[in-house]
Specification:
alpha/beta; elongated; about 250 residues; Rossmann fold; 2 domains; five-stranded parallel β-sheet; five-stranded mixed β-sheet
Length: about 250
């Protein structure tokens, strides 16, 4: 019997290496297929905000490399990984929501930001939920797009594996990874066969927005991770694909 094969779509940096190591530690075999690449814009967040929101490790590293300083602002991270990255590059973190999503951060801040200037530093594919929620709470929002997320031209190995019936599970971490996976399938001329092949695999996603994107595109979603972290997604997807496989 061959090993359980699990597609992971993290950017081709330490996040991909950590994803592969995690899948391996669960007794499965990772199919590394990066669906996101980073293009820095060179834009720097404003320094006159009362609250600053960062939503990714990449954003934390880019603003640090640009020499940005938060001053007296309350620094908010969307989750523990972003918070850890911020601390590693020298920033204090004041707020991490209990639920690691845009809506979770809105819920954490909505009672504090009325009339306040809020700077949001993130990618060009950030969820509108964050901006709309903070605006509804009475904040004055300024968004800085620090980087763009594009699809690497070499992506698609997991698409071919799905078509060949050699993919047991897939871990989608955002709506954009879903969109890029389908773009790769379309570019290869095998979209319909890839979608059919993925139906035979266990598809795990982070968050309901990603689940909605996948379903609207015709993908079958088997589970939404109980916590919005890759670790939880990977563990729950492997367990769903083959219960107790890693024991």
């Amino acid at each position: 019997m061959r090993d359980l094969s699990v597609a992971v779509f993290r950017p081709d940096d330490d996040r991909l290496l950590e994803a592969v190591d995690l899948i391996d530690s669960l007794g499965a075999t990772a199919v590394a297929d990066p669906m996101l690449a980073i293009e820095a814009t060179g834009a720097v967040p404003r320094e006159d905000a009362e609250f600053v929101v960062l939503t990714s490790k990449t954003g934390a590293e880019l603003v640090a490399n640009a020499g940005w300083e938060p001053g007296e602002a309350t620094v908010c991270a969307i989750g523990p990984k972003t918070a850890e990255a911020l601390r590693q590059v020298g920033y204090a973190v004041d707020v991490v929501p209990e639920t690691y999503t845009s809506s979770g951060l809105v819920a954490e801040l909505e009672g504090e930001v009325e009339g306040a200037r809020v700077e949001v530093a993130r990618s060009d594919h950030g969820s509108p939920v964050l901006l709309e929620g903070l605006e509804a709470a009475g904040a004055y929002i300024h968004e800085t797009v620090c980087y763009r997320l594009v699809r690497p031209p070499e992506s698609g190995v997991s698409v071919r594996r799905a078509v060949d019936g050699e993919l047991d599970a897939a871990c989608f971490t955002s709506s954009l990874t879903v969109a890029h996976w389908l773009e790769a399938a379309t570019e290869l001329g095998i979209r319909e066969a890839a979608v059919d092949g993925l139906a035979a695999a266990t598809v795990g996603v982070i968050g309901e927005p990603t689940a909605e994107t996948a379903r609207e595109a015709g993908l079958e979603v088997d589970l939404v991770a109980s916590e919005a972290t890759f670790e939880t997604l990977a563990c729950e997807t492997v367990e769903a694909a083959a219960p107790t496989y890693h024991e």
